[in-house]
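note to self — DONT lose this again. spent like an hour looking for the file last time. sequence + predicted structure for the chain T wanted, 231 res
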Amino acid sequence: MRIIASFILLFFVIFPVIAQENAFVDIDSLYREDQIYVGVTYNLLGNKQNNGVSQNGFSSGFHLGFIRDIPINKRRNIALGIGLGYSGNSFNQNLQIAKDDMKNVTYNILSNSDDFTKNKFALHMVEIPFEFRWRSSTVSDYKFWRIYAGFKFGYLLTHTTKYNGAPSNQKYSDIDHFNNFQYGLTTSLGYNTWNFHLYYGLNPIFNDSAMLDGKSINMKVVKIGLMFYLL
């Protein structure tokens, strides 16, 4: 864990410095759109399979990272992108994750919202985005239209589950039913700094060990929000 955290910190320290140094180099035809990205999203739970799971409150996501730009045409407005980033996501819903007297993980639908004040789980991930990138930029134009589409691969660093309500509050960070590897399709489109962003998860949040009423919990993530790209 410490090695991963140190690598991420080193990544964010070195690459912005390189980008800043490049800003002072004379403009030439070999420019790239290396970018720091910052995003905020509203997180939805998809594929609930009518098992009674519903969201309540606001489920949010925060995303931060750096993407290396690799132009593939002479005009350099079409490129590939690969990066490294962090993503933190919370999900407020009525699926209680608890443990019984034998320390087995259990799942229960909270049917009465008056019985609890908070029920959520949060996931913190390191992510590697891959993008196919089109933009209307030129060597001297820093405000442009863009369409970025791609794939994002994430590895779960830490997680927490929290329940506040009757008969007692519960909080865990050792639930081994979350998928360590999560991935999905992404798209970002917009003008200049402001861009609409969509992430559609392709695999479930939970692994096959998570069962509700004898069935696997196959919920997936959909994130909708804004992505800001900073040169």
